[in-house]
Amino acid sequence: MTMKNQKPPAEIRMVTFEKWPIELCGLLKFENLVQSGGEAKTVIAKGLVRVNGEVETRKRKKLIAGDVIEFAGEKIQIKENHS
Questions:
Q1: CA 15, 38, 75: angle at the middle one, nearest 5?
Q2: pTM score, whole prediction
Q3: Is 69 exposed, middle or buried (0-12, 13-18, 19+ CB in 10 A)?
Q4: Residue 32, in any domain of the structure
């Protein structure tokens, strides 16, 4: 049985940052998931963003390597920088 309206699971995009820690609102902005920092703060406050499967409403939540962020059909995983 196939469901026609079922969305395929989102692929996880890996991102690495030079400076730590990265804040959730900054990640959304830097990865172009929103147009501005203000928009990032709004979507987070509305409960539209998940971190590691849980709704996250802290705009300045510090992200660490391994965290998976989900928003607007996108999945991003923070990768540790080994330079």
A1: 30
A2: 0.80
A3: buried
A4: yes
Smallest CA-to-CA distance from 65 within 82, 47, 44 is with 82
CA-CA-CA-CA torsion sign (26, 27, 30, 36): negative
> So what's the pLDDT on residue 82?
64
Find the mean pLDDT for residues 1-9.
46
**Per-residue pLDDT tens for 39-63?**
999 999 999 999 999 999 999 999 9
Number of domains in the chain: 1
User: What's the rounded Cα separation, in Å, for the pair 47 and 56?
Assistant: 6
The range of the structural domain enclosing residue 47 comes to 12-79
